[in-house]
């Protein structure tokens, strides 16, 4: 930002002030009369010329997404926000509240190319990568929501919304550098989780670059055949290569890896499968998260019964793996990624402007 403003003759202090306005004060209206009173004339003049629309050619945009829909869950703990970007693409952002903390789940692509069969986003296909600012804008939106409610700000961030983060590696890393900036949103890197379906080159890059974020890898199958049936991307990055990349990541970073496992009744939820999963991960510092399936219209599978979830968890724990069952959040607001956008036409929505 400083370089950009310097090109137009502005001083570093103007960039610093604009940065604080955007990322601390959460200013999203650059109309004259709405600007902070201490903005100096050169910055006001610059904004007068540049704040309308976007200049992606110059590498920035001051566009703010509009809120196309917001659905709170019946228990009030989760709310799903459908944000419309400048080109009309819509992405989902979810705010989850836990005792004493708030977590944001953001999207990194409009649609997704990975095609996981049980996922509403995978069923809709890929539209485009989100730019860094469009990823950051989702976090800023939720911070504004929390501030308006006089709630504490976001503490955790998960990249588990629409899209495969490691398929949009560079933009995601730039966004995270902005989100973790101490003079801005200041979300600690250790409180950020990147969830991947197993993009091996991206995992290797994360390791080589020693990125300080948590890594969650979606497995869903303990053999190549089982996994490919649920995650077509597995044909491109086979399970053996994925586990090898995870070992390499763990060795280089010293970090524990979180493995995600969506439980589909009768497909991948037997204690025997759990034991094969434990054998596959032997030697990897792993924590396994079990996620009962979020049903979607385009997939015939059903969620595993609670007793079978318990048996699966027990088998993993007996094999020595810490294993938790993810609290199911926002089923009534279609909080599985892509579900709100896919269901939008069928629902009664609450349109609003940011
Ligand atoms: S689960 Fe994630 S990676 Fe798979 S299709 Fe859905 S958004 Fe893409």
Shape: elongated
Overall average residue pLDDT: 90
Largest sheet descriptor = 10 strands, mixed
Q: Which class do the helix and strand fractions yield?
A: alpha/beta
What does this structure look like?
The structure is a single chain. This protein has 354 residues and is α/β, with parallel strands linked by helices. It has two domains: 2-60, no CATH class; 65-346, TIM Barrel (Alpha-Beta Barrel), CATH 3.20.20.70. The chain has helices spanning 2-7, 12-23, 41-50, 120-124, 132-148, 169-180, 200-208, 224-230, 239-253, 271-280, 306-318, 339-343, and strands at residues 54-55, 60-61, 66-72, 78-84, 90-98, 101-105, 109-111, 126-129, 156-159, 192-196, 214-218, 257-263, 286-292, 323-325. The protein has a ten-stranded mixed β-sheet, covered by helices on one side. Strands 1-2 form a two-stranded antiparallel ribbon. A two-stranded antiparallel sheet has the order 7-8. A hairpin with a 5-residue loop joins strand 3 (66-72) and strand 4 (78-84). It binds iron/sulfur cluster. Iron/sulfur cluster (SF4) is lined by residues 112, 114-116, 119, 121-122, 162-164, 197, 337. Iron/sulfur cluster binds next to helix 4.
Describe, in short, the structure shown.
This protein is α/β, with parallel strands linked by helices and 354 residues long.
